[in-house]
């Protein structure tokens, strides 16, 4: 990667994490990176473009830490609780990742993650699909039911890419309740 681009990314990451999207501007990013504002535009057409790049990298890093910290062989219902607790602790308190629900940039983020490219590049999404599928196979769930469960997983992903907390009051709690009771229903049906 070009040295100036790397400096811009590093500066943008620092400033977005410290100040959030709204309170960071291109001049601040360029100054922190030690480059002229005009040089910024040689690498990025807008603040949104660099933010998307920073967001993707931050999301990947936080999700990878989550994957490493959780015991994925544990009780599946407890895993759901851990997932949402981790989300509140590490995502809702992160000035970059909290922008998922910010109306000024959430559409860009949602559009990217719901696009074919976004889904293919989302290693956490793929990890969850594979992990859920393997867990259900281990529980001797019929392949057709696994397919239905994965379709519900896709539906949850769709909802997450099309609804924000600003549009639906109580969104995070409602999503957690939906997922918890869905998993309870699946696990109780297989016992």
UniProtKB/TrEMBL annotation:
Domain HTH tetR-type: start-end pairs: 2-62
InterPro entries: Homeodomain-like_sf (IPR009057), HTH-type_Tx_Regulator (IPR050624), HTH_TetR (IPR001647)
DNA-binding region: 25-44
Superkingdom of origin organism: Bacteria
Protein name as it appears in the record: HTH tetR-type domain-containing protein
Species in which this protein is naturally found: Treponema vincentii F0403
Record keywords: DNA-binding
GO molecular function terms listed in the Swiss-Prot or TrEMBL record: DNA binding
């Amino acid at each position: 990667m070009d040295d100036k681009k790397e400096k811009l990314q590093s500066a943008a990451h620092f400033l977005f994490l410290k100040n959030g999207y709204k309170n960071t501007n291109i001049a601040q990013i360029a100054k922190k990176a030690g480059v002229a504002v005009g040089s910024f535009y040689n690498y990025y057409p807008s603040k949104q473009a660099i933010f998307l790049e920073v967001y993707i990298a931050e999301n990947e890093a936080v999700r990878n830490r989550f994957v490493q910290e959780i015991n994925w062989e544990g009780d599946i219902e407890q895993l759901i609780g851990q997932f949402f607790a981790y989300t509140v602790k590490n995502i809702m308190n992160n000035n970059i990742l909290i922008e998922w629900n910010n109306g000024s940039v959430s559409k860009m983020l949602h559009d990217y993650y719901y696009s074919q490219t976004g889904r293919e590049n989302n290693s956490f999404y793929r990890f969850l699909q594979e992990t859920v599928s393997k867990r259900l196979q281990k529980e001797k769930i019929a392949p057709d039911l696994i397919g239905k469960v994965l379709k519900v997983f896709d539906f949850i992903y769709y909802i997450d890419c099309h609804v924000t907390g600003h549009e639906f009051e109580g969104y995070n709690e409602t999503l957690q309740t939906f997922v918890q009771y869905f998993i309870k229903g699946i696990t109780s049906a297989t016992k």
